[in-house]
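Apologies for my clumsy wording, but could you write out the amino acids of a protein and the C-alpha cells describing how it folds?
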Amino acid sequence: MKGGGGKCGNMEKIKPILAIISLQFGYAGMYIITMVSFKHGMDHWVLATYRHIVATVVMAPFALILERKVRPKMTLKIFYRLLALGILEPLMDQNFYYIGLKSTTASYTSAFTNALPAVTFILALIFRLERVNFREKHSIAKVVGTVITLGGAMVMTLYKGPAIEIVKAAHSSIHGSSTTATGQHYITGTLAIMGSISTWAAFFILQSFTLKVYPAELSLVTLICGIGSILNFIVSMIFVRDLSAWKIGMDTGTLAAVYSGVVCSGIAYYIQSIVIRQRGPVFTTSFSPMCMVITSFFGALVLAEKIHLGSIIGAIFIVIGLYSVVWGKSKDDVNPLDEKIGAVQELPITNVDKPTNGGDVTGVPMNGRDVTGAPMNGRDVVGAPITGVPTST
C-alpha cells in the first residue's frame, strides 16, 4: 500500500511537469505557423482578434457544462481583475509579441522569452509571492540565476554577431524574401519582446491572485479570451483600415488563428491556471528553454532562419540562470502564494476539513446557500452530507 501511495504521489508531482513540457511543443508550433502567416501578409491585430474568438468559442461549452455548479458569482471586483487580465495578455502581450516576431525571427523571439521566469520572479518578489533569505543557498541561487538570466537577455539585445545558417535555404515559396518581409528591425523587435515578457509576467501574477477568488479555470479562460476578443477588435478597428485583412480562407492566416486560439490560448491558459494553483507562477514559467530549442530547430528547418552568435551566447546565459532559479525554487518548502492567500485550493463550501463558520472565502455569510444561491440543505456541492450539519428531511 505504501508503495502504491508513493507511486501516486510521484505521479501527482510529475503531472504538472508533463503538462508544461507539452505546452512548450504547442508554443513552438505557434512560433513557426505564425511566422509563416506573417510572411503571407497576415495582420497581427487581426490574428490576435481571431485567435481569441476561436479560443472563446472552443472553451465556452466546456465552461458552461462542467463548471455550472462551482462557478463563483461574478462581482465588480472580479470583473475588474478579468478586464485587467484581458488587457495584459490577449491585448498587450500578444500584440507586443507579434510585433517582436515580425521584426526579428522565430528563433530569436523564442530565445529571448526565456527571460520570462526571471521577470516573473522579480514581480513575485515585489508582490511577496516569493521569499529571499540570503542565509539559504537556494534563495541565493534564485537571485543569482535571475541576474544571469537578465544578463543573457542584455547580451542578445546589444550583441548580434555573425549569422549561423544551420539549414540551407531550400523552399523559396515559404521564406522567399524573409529578411525584407519581416523587417529585421532588431531594436524595435527586442523592445516589443521585452514589453511582451513584462505584461505576460504580470498576467501570471494577477492570474495567481484571481484564481483564489475565482477558482473555476475553464470559466476564467473563457472570460479572459472573450474580453480579449472584444478589446482586440476595438483596437483593430483603429489600426486596420483595410477590410480585406479580415478575409477568412483556407490559408496560413486561418490556420494560425485556429491553432493558436485552441492550443496556445484556450488549452494553454487552462493548463497554466491549474499548474499555477498547484506550483505557483515561477514554476509555471520555468520550462521555456525547451521551447527555444524546439523552435530553433523547426525555424531552421522550415523557415531556413539564421541564428546569430549573440543569440546563442545570450541563450546559454539565460538557460544557466533559469535553471539556477528553478533549482532554488524546487528547494522551497512552501508555495508562497498559498502562504499569502491562505492555501485555499477549493471552495470553502466543499472543504469539510476546515470549518468556514458559515462564511465564504471573503468571510461573507453563506446563509445555508452555495455560490449560486441555491439552498445547501446540509450538503456540499456534490450532495454529500456536511459533517456536523443536520440534513433536511
Q: What stands out?
A: Strands lie at 163-165, 306-308. Residues 346-393 form one domain.
